[in-house]
Amino acid sequence: MTDNLDKEEIIFQSRFSKEEVREFFKKDTKFYHTMNINGIKTENTRTSSEYQKWISQVIPNDLTGKKILDVGCADGFYSFLCEKRNASRILAIDQEGFDKHKTIAESGTKVNVNYFELFKKLLDSKVEYRKLDVYDIDLLKETFDFILFFGVYYHIENLISVLKKIHSVVNDSVFLSGHILESENPIMYYYDQSDPTKHGSAGEFAPIVASPQCLINIAKSICGFKNAELVDTISMPYERTYPHFFSDSNVGKIGLFKFSK
Ligand SMILES: C[S@@+](CC[C@H](N)C(=O)[O-])C[C@H]1O[C@@H](n2cnc3c(N)ncnc32)[C@H](O)[C@@H]1O
User: Fold this and answer.
1) Confidence of residue 236 (pLDDT cuts 50, 70, 90)
2) CATH number of the domain that residue 175 is part of
């Protein structure tokens, strides 16, 4: 992990008072993202502000006039960050809908996806949300300068077809993050999802995980991206033992990538 990352926390501003924000955050549930609004932070979150900051290093600081697609947006932290960085249009999509107070099983934790709407309201945000599966992004009939594809690739069984679709709707670059296999070789691991007893309870592990070189080869040789690079890696920020670990350590790695046209 790069150590020259600035550690300053990303703080969003809201017209609501600190007390009002605190009241909104009190609701007893699990947020996916850490949000710091007017200095008040969500607690009980799946990802930390440090981790989100690490991911955010790959997104340009000035997005003036840029169009962004955030795939698998969850609570929307990265979409709201792009708005803060002056993007002109942001479309956030997720296969989960926010119409009901619905919870999804996300790697063993319950995530209330309705918090996207709460953050949107607190921030007076213009980010547009649509319930859409990434397999259908070609139906949008729209192109985007940058596409955020954070924490999603390992959920996608037909990754090549999806990355080809992403290539067809992106003008500049896609930023991707996700679990990686620690190997120099271009390899991919498919879990046997048919037998939950093998790899923990059903849905506990995403269907695939790939090595960095495998993702890079898919991006460049198969999907047509001109450049594909591994920007950085980080040890998995939460305790987890995945069956695909080869090494002695139980610490997995997450990779951060940039694929450009
Ligand atoms: C591990 S979370 C990552 C959330 C967020 N992008 C981040 O990095 O913090 C994966 C998200 O992707 C969504 N997702 C999974 N498969 C998807 C698909 N086929 N189409 C759209 N969204 C999907 C899930 O609903 C979930 O919100």
Assistant:
1) confident
2) 3.40.50.150
102 within domain boundaries = yes
Q: Can you give the pTM of this predicted structure?
A: 0.91
- Cα–Cα nearest to 244, from 194, 210, 204, 203: 210
Summarize pLDDT for 177-213 with one digit per residue, the tens.
Answer: 998 988 899 999 887 777 656 554 445 567 888 999 9
C-alpha 48 to ligand 1 mean position (Å):
17
Tokens in use for 186?
Answer: 């271009």
Q: Is residue 200 in some structural domain?
A: yes
Number of domains the chain is built from:
1
Task: For residue 164, give the nearest of 134, 194, 127 by alpha carbon.
Answer: 134
Taking the C-alpha atoms of residue 248 and residue 61, their distance in angstroms, rounded to an integer, is 38
Query: Which atom of ligand 1 sits closest to the CA of residue 135?
Result: 19
Kindly state whether residue 30 falls inside one of the protein's structural domains. Answer: no
C-beta separation of 134 from 162 below 8 A: yes
CA 143 / ligand 1 centre spacing (Å): 20
Ligand 1 pocket (Cβ < 6 Å) reads 33, 47, 71-74, 93-96, 133-135, 150-152, 155-156
- More confident call, 222 vs 8: 222
- Asked whether residue 189 is assigned to any structural domain, the reply reads yes
Counting from 1 in the atom list of ligand 1, the atom nearest the Cα of 177 is 8
Q: What is the pLDDT of residue 46?
A: 85
Domain that holds residue 206: 57-260
Consecutive H or E run containing 176: strand 170-180
